[in-house]
Design goal:
Blueprint: H1 2-13, H2 17-25, H3 31-39, H4 54-67, E1 71-75, H5 79-94, E2 99-102, H6 115-123, E3 128-132, H7 139-147, E4 151-155, E5 170-172, H8 188-202, H9 212-221, H10 228-242, H11 247-256, H12 265-282, H13 286-293, H14 297-333, E6 341-346, H15 353-364, E7 368-374, E8 377-383, H16 390-396, E9 403-406, E10 410-416, H17 420-434, E11 451-452, H18 472-476, E12 491-504, E13 508-515, E14 521-525, H19 532-535, E15 541-552, E16 555-565
Parallel strand pairs: 1-2, 1-3, 3-4, 4-5, 6-7, 11-12, 14-16
Antiparallel strand pairs: 7-8, 8-10, 9-10, 12-13, 12-15, 13-14, 15-16
Helix pairs in contact: 1-2, 4-8, 5-8, 5-9, 5-13, 6-7, 8-9, 9-10, 11-14, 12-13, 12-14, 13-14, 14-15, 16-17
Length: 566
């Protein structure tokens, strides 16, 4: 049946059979859905006025505009928060509203809005405050801002705390009760974009699609679900990243990408996001936000150099904490790792514990929380695995926390260090309540793949719809964004012959591979030195691989990134 569906898709959409089979393997079952998936549809974009409070939010903003007062924009310190602040700052400047911005310092201020931040902004003259990508759980802090006479709009995408909503003037959050907006999985910058769309429509201005490159960055970095609307925004945004209007993103493209190449979701996740998040992880996020807001390439180039230095320091610190966390897991749990991993260390760098928790989750196939104990308080960052919801788990034990927030895949919280053991026990109970029992996946991650292919299928003939297409990679661009819950395609090929193999520094294998009826392909196997003997036996092998572009001497060719050799 699946083969019949794939043949229909290939014929009706004029795409290679391999592409059609891949789409079917990812759950696309008919021509209409496949067409929308490949080419997108503006029907996936919902009317922003469907979001609860949107009309009031627009009127609130227009009232501030009439007053001639400036607006302080407070955002989170991660990339979603920074792109939210950037988008709103630029959009409000277009309609003549002056703004100032503030970001929290995770080391001194912690997560989200704080009373001290409210006081600092008030002393700086703030009378109008918008929080973006944060604020839904800041009940006390917003009450304090109101007591000081400030007008406050909260624009967030996180789940409410369960202890009531903040008493702000206007609230935008698709997760609030009674909100009928059809895409509650927007990230923070997605909510900000919907607000700007509604505002510009009210003012008779065109839809500001030029901001979708910022939306793409935040959506991918924040690991929210790729709903049809999120996919549409991200798809358009990735296209805009190649020719962005913003000097900071122009400089990043020139530095990180090959000239003329498209930007994919994987590029954002492994090139753009780490650089932009690095200063906030190590000290203060301000340099990254200044780059996004920079008015000239000269300024942006200087800031990008600074970001690269921060990123080098981040990598070093991350490596150190990861090694200590792995040792902690072995000492804490021995051979029996529970449903949820909770590890803690004294004065671990809080800027990298989120990355470390993601690595532990991947290593042990368990949701993981990594805690840094500083002056008796434990500050945590947590990452999930499929089947486990961090927001639900933390909600169930929220009485333990001083502060907490996040969503299903990632979260943060703070609690007294004396409560860590209780936290472990109650999180394990919360996992069982969710029906999550842990355990490694049935198939090792390195051996997971979407479909079996013949290597000759990687080269394709041009079609009327894609006259310049010569490889399946030309069609993969149509399927962007990859990342998050829609990972990059992984294939398996049997009967592969190795013509040449060379070991590279770092334990990597460089190979030349072919299969009956195919051309030879360059291949790289990262960390596969242990397979060198197997490769050298001069017999057909099976490989699991990702087809990727390799750029050399201004030419691009297919290279197979081998994940496993069987």
């Amino acid at each position: 049946m699946e083969e019949l569906v794939a043949s229909t898709l290939a014929r009706e959409l004029s795409v290679p059979h391999l592409v059609a089979r891949f789409l079917v393997s990812r759950g696309v079952k008919n021509v209409a859905d496949a067409y929308k998936f490949l080419y997108g549809s503006d029907s996936d974009i919902a009317d922003p006025m469907l979001m609860k409070g949107m009309g009031e939010a627009v009127e609130w903003l227009l009232d501030v505009q009439k007053s001639g007062e400036e607006i302080f924009i407070f955002g989170d310190y991660d990339l979603d928060g920074m792109t939210s602040v950037t988008l709103l700052s630029k959009a409000l400047a277009e309609i003549g509203i002056a703004t100032q911005w503030r970001l929290p310092n995770r080391f001194g201020d912690g997560y989200g809005l704080s009373v001290s931040a409210v006081d600092e902004m008030h002393e700086a003259g703030a009378r109008n405050l918008i929080t973006v990508d944060t604020g839904i759980t800041a009940n006390a802090e917003i009450a304090h801002a109101k007591e000081l006479g400030m007008r406050v709009m909260v624009m967030d995408h996180h789940q409410p705390s369960g202890d009531g909503l903040p008493q702000c003037d206007v609230l935008l959050d698709p997760h609030q009760e009674g909100d009928a907006y059809p895409n509650p999985e927007l990230c923070g910058v997605g909510v900000s974009y919907k607000f700007v769309c509604a505002l510009f429509a009210k003012l008779g201005r065109p839809v500001p699609t030029r901001y979708l490159d910022l939306v793409a960055l935040g959506t991918l970095a924040d690991l929210v679900q790729m709903t049809p609307e999120n996919r549409r925004f991200t798809k358009i945004g990735l296209e805009h990243l190649r020719n962005s209007e913003w000097p900071g993103l122009q400089v990043m493209y020139s530095s990180l990408m090959k000239s003329g190449s498209s930007v994919g979701g994987i590029d954002v996740m492994y090139k753009y996001a780490p650089l932009l998040n690095a200063p906030g992880r190590m000290e203060r996020p301000d340099p990254a936000l200044k780059l996004l807001l920079s008015a000239s390439k000269t300024e942006a180039m200087s800031l990008l150099s600074e970001l690269k230095n921060w990123n080098a320091r981040r990598k070093q610190k991350e490596s150190e904490i990861t090694e200590m966390a792995l040792k902690n897991v072995r000492e804490q749990y021995g051979e029996k790792v529970p449903e949820v991993i909770v590890v803690a260390g004294e004065n671990w760098h809080v800027g990298v514990i989120g990355i470390v928790s993601a690595k532990l989750a991947q290593e042990f196939h368990r949701p993981a929380a990594v805690l840094s104990i500083i002056d008796g308080m434990a500050h945590a960052s947590a990452r999930a695995v499929p089947g486990f919801n961090w927001h639900k788990a933390l909600f169930d034990v929220r009485d333990l926390f001083e502060r907490w927030g996040g969503h299903a895949n990632a979260a943060g919280f703070s609690l007294a260090a004396t409560k860590i053991d209780e936290l472990r026990e109650r999180l394990e109970a919360a996992a069982r309540e969710q029906g999550y029992t842990g355990g490694a996946p049935e198939v090792d991650e390195a051996h997971r793949y979407d479909i079996d292919v013949a290597l000759r299928e990687l080269s394709v003939a041009p079609s009327p719809s894609r006259p310049k297409a010569h490889t399946v990679l030309d069609y993969f661009e149509l399927m962007e964004p990859f990342g998050g819950n829609f990972p990059y395609p992984v294939f398996r090929a049997e009967g592969v012959k190795v013509h040449r193999v060379r070991e590279l520094r770092g334990g990597h294998l460089q190979m030349e591979l072919s299969q009956a009826g195919s051309q030879s392909y360059s291949a790289i196997g990262f960390g596969l030195r242990k397979n060198k003997v197997l490769v050298g036996k001069n017999r057909p092998l099976s490989i699991v691989f990702e087809p990727t572009w390799n750029y050399y001497n201004d030419k691009k060719t297919i290279q197979l990134c081998v994940k496993a050799i069987e």
